[in-house]
């Protein structure tokens, strides 16, 4: 029998390989990556200095730098913004949230990964966990070192982030944050260090799980309302109510409180001393503000602990809301969304207990 020409073998082999890849791709989950810039997409100004420019690379460049990503999922990328997260705004939040909800509504999309700067990642992730209209996984990743740095942590965080998005255990957990081999609930996580890769921690509760080279172990489930269960909707919103955070300190005056209200704040969050406390002049100004219809939330400038209702201040009498476990930044996020539904401090306090 005459042997077949080598070219025919090559064609047959290539066709078989292509068919195998197609079958493999059909079996993989489909993940949408939404990029917003940040350190993870940053480039150093020089090879020896720490300074860098955020958002120097686009989403496709980020994804192409991660080995074996295509073995975890079929991935499509989209650039929603390209900023340092210190410039994150309400407008970009709404744009990003609407893109997340649109992507998750597509039958072929199994989850969303978001790349984001670390400065405000904890706020964006909590905002998304409150307004996402699907139970499909939403995972946020960032990095503490720019893409051009020695031992850049971005590629590893992206790889582990995609692994978490594709994990059946991630469904229904609300927003998740994945950095440095740890998984955190968006509600609980805070940035604790200016430059360390171990900066993100869930101080009061601990992480939601760990992930190493894509292998996941889950810990405790979330016990608060997330995603569709919150009842928040941003579909018809083009802006959010103004809420300001005011930092308490020794000899604190009422000036900044008065200025915030004068400039249109509908709500105020106080980063109080101790258990959400403040000076007498500040307390008097806030008492008047609450009576005038401004929603006042007492939080704390301390890194851990729970701000208790009616502990040192009679919140019932003054009409205040207490933040519980939420730090000032996350209290602001929840209060902004709460004010889209009600200005009643009693109803808003219930949200702080449940979300």
Structural description of this entry:
This protein is an alpha/beta fold. It folds into two domains: 26-229, Rossmann fold (3-Layer(aba) Sandwich); 241-354, Rossmann fold, CATH 3.40.50. Helix content is 32%, strand content 20%. The chain has helices at 6-27, 59-64, 90-105, 121-131, 154-165, 255-262, 280-291, 315-318, 328-338, 345-354; strands spanning 30-37, 43-44, 52-53, 74-83, 111-115, 138-141, 175-179, 182-185, 190-191, 200-201, 209-212, 215-218, 243-247, 267-272, 295-300, 321-322. The strands form four sheets. Strands 4-1-5-6-7-8-11-12 form an eight-stranded mixed sheet. A four-stranded parallel sheet has the order 13-14-15-16, sandwiched between helices. Helix 4 (121-131) runs parallel beside helix 9 and helix 6 (255-262) packs parallel to helix 7. It is globular, with a radius of gyration of 23 Å.
């Amino acid at each position: 029998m005459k042997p077949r020409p080598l070219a025919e073998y090559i064609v047959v082999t290539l066709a078989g390989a292509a068919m195998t890849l197609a079958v493999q791709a059909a079996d993989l989950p489909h993940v949408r990556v939404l990029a917003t810039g940040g350190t993870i997409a940053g480039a150093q100004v020089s090879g020896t200095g720490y300074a860098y420019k955020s958002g120097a690379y686009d989403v496709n460049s980020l994804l192409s730098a991660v080995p074996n990503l295509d073995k975890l999922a079929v991935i499509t990328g989209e650039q929603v913004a390209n900023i340092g997260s210190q410039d994150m705004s309400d407008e970009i939040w709404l744009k990003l949230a609407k893109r997340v909800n649109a992507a998750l509504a597509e039958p072929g999309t199994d989850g969303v990964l978001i790349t984001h700067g670390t400065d405000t990642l904890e706020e964006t992730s909590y905002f998304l966990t409150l307004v996402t209209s699907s139970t499909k996984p939403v995972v946020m990743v960032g990095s503490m070192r720019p893409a051009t740095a020695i031992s850049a942590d971005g590629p590893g965080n992206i790889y582990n982030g995609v692994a978490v998005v594709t994990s059946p255990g991630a469904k229904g957990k609300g927003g998740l944050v994945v950095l440095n081999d740890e998984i955190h609930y968006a509600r609980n996580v805070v940035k604790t260090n200016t430059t360390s890769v171990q900066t993100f921690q869930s101080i009061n509760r601990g992480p939601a799980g760990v992930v190493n080279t894509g292998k996941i172990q889950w810990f405790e489930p979330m016990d608060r309302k997330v995603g569709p269960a919150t009842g928040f909707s941003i579909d018809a919103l083009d802006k959010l109510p103004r809420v300001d955070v005011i930092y308490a300190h020794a000899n604190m005056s009422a000036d900044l409180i008065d200025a915030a209200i004068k400039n249109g704040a509908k709500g105020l969050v106080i980063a109080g001393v101790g258990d959400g406390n403040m000076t007498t002049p500040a307390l008097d100004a806030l008492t008047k503000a609450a009576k005038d219809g401004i929603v006042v939330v007492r939080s704390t400038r301390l890194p851990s602990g729970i701000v208790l209702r009616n502990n040192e201040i009679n919140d019932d009498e003054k009409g205040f809301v207490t933040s519980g476990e939420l730090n000032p930044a996350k209290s602001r996020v929840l209060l902004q969304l709460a004010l889209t539904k009600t200005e009643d401090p009693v109803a808003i306090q219930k949200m702080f207990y449940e979300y």
